[in-house]
Amino acid sequence: MELLLILLAVIAIVAVIIFLILQYYPPLGGRSSAESQKRIEASPQFSGGKFRNQMPTSMVNSPKDTFDALIKTIKGTPNSRPKGDVPVEPFDSKAFMENKEDQVVWFGHSTLLLKVDGVKLLIDPVFSDYASPVRFFGPKRYSDKLPAEIEELPELDAVIISHDHYDHLDYASIRQLSGKAKQFIVPLGVAGHLTKWGVDPDRIVELDWWEKQQLHGLTLTSTPARHFSGRGGGAGSTLWSSWVIVSQHTRIFYSGDSGYGPHFKEIGEKFGPFDLTLIETGQYDEKWANIHMSPEESLQAHLDVQGKLMIPIHWGAFTLALHSWTDPIERATRAAELQNSVLATPKIGEVVTIGASEYPSESWWE
């Protein structure tokens, strides 16, 4: 009887600790306001207490699949990380600002700095060394340096978030950006995280799929993706999005994280053709095909949205899957050659001018 009481006490203590962590550990995020929750519950994407995809999207693996993945993880994947630092081009903020052309700079993985008609946008900012809620634990960045730190960036007109996973929404980065960005434009439900981290609610715009926000002459539209959300529990409590950015002269599509689906053609029909697409190309597995594309599917998504130039993203910074770190770009390059599509392969930090006659094409990962 005494042993049973001790066991129950230990279970109760553990339960309380877990509860306190989920409630109060800042990187896990926060809850939606009452006003936001009303909009969430009225969304066509919200059903049965959570957000859902346009089409059935199972994410349940069999016990065998889970066991196989665990064994592969323990064994490790050859070439899962670069042998040394990947090449990084330093960011020249002054030159970036003085150049009048539309430009994009890839900071690795899915973090992108854009200047479109002079409007400065930062997408899915993750400047931490780990794609994790805990420092020194989880996927570590390949390189010890970035093209620039947050304090070295120009003042930002807006930060755009695709969804609330740790490799796209980073607590430390948002804390630093709260005084540098004029606006935060996010999918429904994500504002709860930002307000908990000190961002003024008046500077946050939440959008459902197909809703638009005007910003200094640009039109930003939240568009569908085939994915999921959740950090610290509450899976599906926030929406995930791709994004369309349109100016008078330039059209850009950012895929966010997504499995392949008919939404790409729908977006292309509504908003295409696009001068530039930024498409998720890495961190895939056949068991995750519903929520992450293979490189060949990524290229097809680019074609579906009627893209002219594609930059592969969601690779080159963290190992989050069991393929080699160069597999995404190698396969995407081959697929582009077969489809006679134009692919840009910039180094991290290398400036790409949208609409230029030539683009970075060096195989720097070799």
Task: Outline the secondary-structure elements.
Elements (H helix, E strand, L loop, with lengths): L1 H23 L9 H9 L3 E2 L2 E2 L11 H13 L17 H6 L4 E4 L5 E5 L2 E5 L34 E3 L10 H7 L6 E4 L3 H6 L7 E4 L4 E4 L2 E6 L18 E5 L4 E4 L8 H9 L4 E5 L14 H10 L4 E5 L13 H13 L2 E2 L7 E3 L13
Parallel strand pairs: 5-6, 6-7, 7-8, 12-13, 13-14, 14-15
Antiparallel strand pairs: 1-2, 3-4, 3-16, 4-5, 9-10, 10-11, 11-12
CATH class value: Alpha Beta
Total number of beta strands: 16
State mean pLDDT (0 to 100 scale): 91
Number of helices: 9
How many domain units? Answer: 1
| Outline | globular
Taken as a percent bin, the fraction of beta residues is 15-25%
**What Rg is obtained from the alpha carbons, in whole angstroms?**
21 Å
Class based on secondary structure composition and strand pairing? alpha/beta
Instruction: Classify the helix fraction into a percent range.
Output: 25-40%
